[in-house]
Each structure stands twice: as structure tokens, then as C-alpha cells.
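Aim 2, interim progress. The first record below pairs a target sequence with its C-alpha cells.
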Amino acid sequence: MGKEISTFIVLLMFIIFSNFSCFQISNTDIPNVDENQVQQDFRTWWDYNFKNIKLSSDFIPLDISSNIISKESFLKQLSTGEFIPLKIEGSESKYKLFKLNPSIDPEIKTQAKRIGDDEYIKYKMEGTKIPIFEFKDLKGNLYNNESVKGKVVVLKCWFINCLTCVQEMPALNEFVEKYKNRKDILFISLAFDSKEKLDSFLLTHKFSYAVLPVPQSFIEDSLKVSGYPTHFIIDKTGIIRKVVTDYHEMIPTLYNELSK
């Protein structure tokens, strides 16, 4: 009888230990940085966020309890300015929300909210129709909703004094060259500088996109652009499929649309 009790106790302890071990092993949603350390000052947080977080990518969104939630809910919570996203250790596509420390630099909260707002607006535009437009490029060619129908449109919003907008032009020119023989793709850019300034700028800067001078109000009010550059991928039916700041992040969507 004593032997049976001892065996039962050993078996019970084994089950408890096994369950505890499984719990420990399955608790894998650990960020790749200490949540307190990354909030110690604005520069530390900014560098981390820039290098690790790509909110326009297709990631797995987790709430503060590690529950999978919708991307819309994730971005909406970020836009409150009460959270920051951290990348999960060992995963390239899993981000988790963490509450901001009450004592953080206020600038972290301000910028986290701004980024959340911006990404939420971009996300909500995906799947919607491109607004009605009709503008001429610098060569006098007319572009409107009808003229781009049946083509994949790669659209960039920019302005001359935007350093990043200018720095990325050589890479974008390579895209144009790569697809120069395809008739089902258009590379268009909208800039709110005057035609005269754009003509002068392009004398010393090569940009292979069609350049359309447009009112700043169209870019920022109709297209909801709040940062530059901003890139859109628009499908052949006029539906916005992707809105990003970093042109690298539009590439998978572009490949997908061109393979249809």
C-alpha cells in the first residue's frame, strides 16, 4: 500500500512538473529587447523602432496578453499613444503591444501615437478605390482614372526638398527599367512643387517615373498622405492594395499583382 502511494505521488509530481515545463516552453512571446530598456530615452526607442518594426508588412499582431488580434485592432490601439510594438524574439513577423511606462520621455508617446495614426490611416485605405483624379505630367500627357484602368499603378508622392524622396530615386529607376517591356504597369509620381521647379530639378536628377505636379491638398486630403515619400500599389481595377513609406515594403505586393 505504501509503495502504491509513493508511486502515485511520484506520478503526480511528474505530471505537475511536465505541465509546468510545457507552460514555460510555450511561453515564447518574449520581445527581442527589454521593454524598459528600450523606453529609457527617445533615441534608444527611435533607433529600435526604425530597425525592427515594419507596420506595413504582413505581421502577426499580438495584444498585451499575447492573444492574436486583427491588424486593424493592433494599429488602432497604437494610435492611442498608450502602447509601443516590440518584435518577438526569433520571429520576423510577430509584433506584440506593450504599455508605455508612465515616466517615459513624452516625445516617445507623441511619436508612437503619430506613427500609429499614420499606419492606421494607410491600412484603412487598402482595399478602397483610388480617388477621382485628372492631372497632366510634365510632358503634357493626361492621367486619370480611365487612362490607368487595366494597369498596375506604382504611385509615389513626394516633393523636391524631401531628402529620402530624392535618395531613393536611383533604386526606383531600376524598377522602371526592369519592367520597361511590360505594357500593364505604370510608374507615376505626384509632387506638389510647381512645374517650373520640377523641370529645373529634373535637369540634374534622373527620375524615370512620370512626374505630375499636383496640388498639395490632393495628396494630403484625398490620398491621406501625412509623410513623404509614400508609395501606393494600385491594382488593375483601381483598388489600392498597399500603402507604404519604405519602397522595399511594396515589392511583395507589386510582384503579387503582376503575377495575376
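The second target in this work package is listed in the same format:
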Amino acid sequence: MSAALKVSIDGGPYALAAGSGPYGITAGADGALWFTAMTSGDLGRISVDGELSGWPSVGGAPSMIVTGPDNALWFTLNQGNAVGRLAPAEGITVRELPTAGAGPVGIAATHDDALWFTEILADKLGRIPMDEPIQEMELPGKPHGVVADPDDGVWVSLWGANQIARVSGDGAEVVTIDLPPGSEPHGLAIGPDGAAWVALESGYVLRMPT
């Protein structure tokens, strides 16, 4: 990864190489933060003290990243049409998606030892059980963000359809909730009370009822 400069201390921010395009970030099992640099194709690590280090470039426009049930770092390769896994002691492995040109973006780890990810260009939602083949299901509306539901399954933002979907852990049940036209839902998070929150490009943050 290109050399980076820490530009302030005790709270950041920290500057990366020009044009690297930092995108996704997650807390790693090692106590540090791991992030993707979408433009440069790098994966980076930053300690809570601000020490930056990197990993050999993976290319393919790495986007969102999450710590998986196996404590490895899992990330989507938006232009590489794949999902990658980084275990620092083992290196990087990449799993190509069954659907060509799927454009994976969001990724989330669930309590049932699986990873879920969105395929925004293929209108699909993907699931990776540990050590099993990738599964895909149709979910029209340009799936973008995904977050694990504390009870079961995942919540997904359907950016192109102005909807939120809740998908059960086995994928058998899909419930969609319509949002106002032009909402353009993106990022998702689960609040302390277990409710799902979603950021709308239209300028609002929405809390889903529990």
C-alpha cells in the first residue's frame, strides 16, 4: 500500500495516499480498524493509536468490508465480481461470484456463521455459509446496503426501488417495505434496541419499527 501520512493525533483525521479512495471500514478481531481503498485497490489497517499499515493490492475496487464469523476480514470486490477473504496469517483468498457482472457492494456477517452481500448490478442478494458454495437469490431493486438482524436474517436497502427488505436467515421469507419516492436508501445499521436504521440519500435517517 502507498505510504500514508498521519496528519493529526488524538482523534485524527489521517491522510492516505492521494486518490486511494477509502470506502469501507470495520473493526477487526485484532483490535484495529481495517478499511478498503476502492480506487487504488488496497486494503489497509489502522491501529487505535493511528499507526497505518497495508496489504498488497488486491485490485478489483474493494468496497465494503466486515469481520466474519471466522474472525477473518471479508470484503466485496465491486469491479472484480468476487468476494475476498483476508486472514493476516494466511493471506488473501478470492471467491468469484456465480453471476457475471454482479457488482457486489454491501457485506454483513450474521450470527448463523454466514456472510451476506449485495449484487447491485444483478439485482441479487448473495450468501456465503462458511466453507460452502456461494448462494444467490433474486432481490430486484438494486440491493446496496446489508446489515444482520439481531434475531434472524438481514435487512437490505433496495436503492433503485426505494424499498427496505427484510430477508429471513434461510432466504425463504422476504418482506419489502415501501419508502417515499426519491428516498434512495443506502447504509444500514442496527440500534441498541435492535431496530434497523437506514440512511436515505434524500436527506433523512429512518428508524424501522421493531
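The first strand starts at residue 22 and ends at 27. This observation will shape the mutagenesis plan for the next reporting period.
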